[in-house]
Amino acid sequence: MLSIGELLANTLSGDQQTREDASRQLEQAQQTNYPAYVVMLCQELSNEQTETFIRNSAGLALKNSLVSSEASRRNEITQRWLNMDEPTRQQIKQAVLATLGSSDQRAAATAAQVVSAIAAIELPTGQWTDLMKTLLENVTTTDNSQLKIATLTAIGFVCESIDSDILAAQSGAILTAVVSGARKEEPNQEVRKAAIDALYNSLEFIRENFDREGERNYIMQVVCEATQSADVNVQVAAFECLVRIMQIYYDKMRFYMEKALFGLTVLGMKHEDERVALQAVEFWSTVCDEELELMGEAAEAQETGEQPERLSHNFAKAALPEILPEEEADEDDWNVSMAAGTCLALLAQCVEDAVVAPVIPFVENHIRNNDWRFREAAVMAFGSILEGPEHKLLANLVNQALPVLIDMMRDPSPQVKDTTAWTLGRVSELLIECIKPDVHLHPLITALVYGLKDSPRIVSNCCWALMSLSDQFGSKETPQPTYHLSTYFEGIITALLETTERSSNESNSRTSAYECISILVQGAALDCFPTIQKLTFTILDRLDATISAQNQIVGSDERLAHSELQSNLCSVLTSIIRKLRTEVVPFADRIMTTLLSLFQTATKHSTTLEDGFLAVGAITTAVEGDFLRYLEAFAPFLYGALSNHEEYQLCSIAVGLIGDICRALQEQSLPYCDTFMNVLLQNLQSPVLNRNVKPAILSCFGDIALAISGRFEVYLEIVMLVLAQASNMRATDGVNLMTNYDMIDYVIALREGILEAYVGIVQGLKTGEKADLLMRYIDQIFNFMNMTWNDQEKTEIIIRSMIGLIGDLAEAFPNGQIKQWFQYDCVTQVLREGRSNRNLPAGTREVTRWAKEVGFVEATAV
User: Fold this and answer.
1) Stretch 671-691: mean pLDDT, rounded?
2) Confidence at residue 19, expressed as pLDDT on a 0 to 100 scale
3) Rounded distance, CA 71 to CA 257, Å?
4) Furthest-apart CA pair in the chain: how many Å?
């Protein structure tokens, strides 16, 4: 067998077979004897005589054996490392730490990654307690700049990858190390840059240090001084750090804004290096983000008659005259121009009416300038202030500007046309009342359709503007007989179809065109249906063509583009089916034939399946019980998706599709329910399937129960057991609220799914005259509702579902059999909430009214 060094070298070979053989042997070595494998990798990484590329490969292989993005795999990797004997682990750690001082910069940088990977495993378990002490000594007691850089890089990686609570106790040592390297007295600017990067990653868990004024002053001094470094890379890192500091510690920034930050960032925005200017602009965008959030909190507090917990310092309003645009953006500074536009848009939302007076003179002075840069900057500024100020203040300005903007869609500069199309989209989205259909609509749509023939970026913005018009004028619910776009509908669709025939999808232009077609279809009026029916066959013909071309595809890029095209076509098809509803029935056979052919040729990991399944879901709603004739042919693809646990989004869509099928077929779905239930229960037990699919599975039980009513009896016991087990999931550890917001969101979704399951089961068994089967589970249901109501994390869906479930139970047991459970406080409180909370949607209030009308609930609970 080849040595580990030779195998690593072969993984970089130009010969595919050699690469694959080497990778297979390395994987085998890892599986056969993991301790020996990592020791050999470590020896290669730390060997100063080994070539750089092999040392680098060894370090990356070592690091990759210690990390994983998948939770289950991560736990397995952690245990594998911790199960190794202590001397072996110590040997590896010492060698990796020593490699931080290597003269080979790439090897040292890779060693920093390995240090972080090991620390992420050991520090949470209370091991490697002297790590930070060692790293601190590396920075503060040596003149070896390379060692300092690699060590600071390692500290940055550790701070980035480990929970802040674990590192909080060592924040002092970390802060000492990074500030030591970041000071202006540090002669090596690469060391300084690494230190600033590490400080950026440590900001979350040095809160106690930041609370102390003396330490905070010193940190801010070091960062502000770094913005004035002679090295631009250090300046960029320092401004990035200031952005993060403003994001985390806004409340403590008033003194520093007055003394330094305002001046530094205003100068930074004018810096000749784009990277510095971008970060200085981002600083003010962050200020606006924070102050917008504080405005929202203040408004909520005012509604409840309370004082807000935090106050805005109104930095944005105070800085307004200094940070508004002064002159044009150079063509080379396009990114800065876009960032400035974003910042100005946030500023407009933040300071509202105050932004108009200083911006409009700039627009008026430059919108007809001979230099395209001035024209583009003027249009960008105008488009950026359309959200925030009062509509009354903007209406006259927009009315005056619209004819000018429409004419500018024929400007010789592509940058001007691009920004103009974006601005017209903003007007359509935010100030539709300013677009007078009899005056503006014809020239506006003509200009946007003309723009569809232009460069890809302009096409994307024209599509967005057309989508905004459709959203504003159209109706996605019950179609209107006609609407303002009816006259132009067929012409727009034709132009968009021509745009989609471009071979390239540069700037997402083709995808934008297909998305625009979908949005137009969704908002279309009844008099557009003939065009939509013709469009159906165009889309099906194109899908058939992609299926025929499937075997001619070569290369991963071409395959990805092909899959994306099929997904776009399926999305349009789904919109058509949902819009036409029963009018799509005559085409249903053709649609399903094409979709089944698509599923036959699609690869297991293709997103095409997801979009195709959504189209099938739309068909079930349109044809209802007639879908039975397609189910036998479709079922194998459905079961395959349900078993494809690696592609959890596809699996989740397939779960939803079971619900669609059961709703469409009702009792005709009964022959398939045993298979449906078995697959769903297996998926709940799967250790591989992403947990976010599981709430949808619980909800699906309710759909099945509703469809087969009393026949659900055979599944009742196992489903109620599953729901009881799922009810035990908490977002707290019994003492403190978890900081893992993903877990909180998951538990909320789980509870929503449980409630939807209960609603379906109660309604189904009531319809099947088997409600008495629920008596043994009434305690379980009401205890779950009581627990859910008393948890502070509740959504509107949970409240509405609880109210609906209470009403369903009252109807299912009209003779007082469960009267005592209706005395629960949660029943009274949730009904009162549904009746009195004006912030709840109309649908929730309607459900509450219905629940109150159920006589038993009225008498016993309200």
Assistant:
1) 93
2) 85
3) 42
4) 87
SS3 content of the chain, % helix, strand, coil (to 5): 80, 0, 20
Give the CA dihedral 581, 585, 591, 593, nearest 10 degrees.
150
Mean pLDDT of 745-765: 95
Mean pLDDT across 730-753: 72
Q: Rounded to an integer, what distance in angstroms lies between the CA atom of residue 233 and that of residue 245?
A: 18
CB contact at 8 A, 231 and 193: yes
Provide the percentage of residues in the chain whose pLDDT is more than 90.
71
Compute how many other C-beta atoms are within 10 angstroms of the C-beta atom of residue 572: 28
**Distance of alpha carbon 797 from alpha carbon 792, whole angstroms:** 14
| Identity of the amino acid at 417 | K
> Token pair of 214, please?
């003396």
* DSSP 8-class letter at 229: -
d(CA 172, CA 150) in angstroms, rounded, equals: 20
- Tokens, residue 146: 């390379």
Q: 545, 677, 493, 703: which is closest to 617 by C-alpha?
A: 703
The reported pTM is 0.81
Cα–Cα distance, 281 to 269 (Å, whole number): 6
Q: Could you give the CA distance from residue 766 to residue 672 in angstroms, rounded to a whole number?
A: 22
pLDDT digits (tens, 9 = 90+) for 320-368: 888 875 544 454 445 777 888 889 999 999 999 999 999 999 999 999 9
Q: Residue 656 has what pLDDT?
A: 96
Dump the DSSP string for 709-757: GGGGHHHHHHHHHHHHHHHT--SB-SSSB-S-HHHHHHHHHHHHHHHHH
The angle at the Cα of 752, spanning 740 to 646, to the nearest 5 degrees, equals 65
Average pLDDT over residues 564-579: 96
Six token digits for residue 165: 């609570």
Copy the structure tokens of residue 172. 């002092």
What pLDDT sits at residue 327? 47
In the 8-state DSSP scheme, what is residue 370? S
Three-class SS state of 101: coil
**H/E element, 573:** helix 556-580
CA distances from residue 177 to 203, 429, 517, 849 in whole angstroms, order as listed: 13, 50, 57, 63
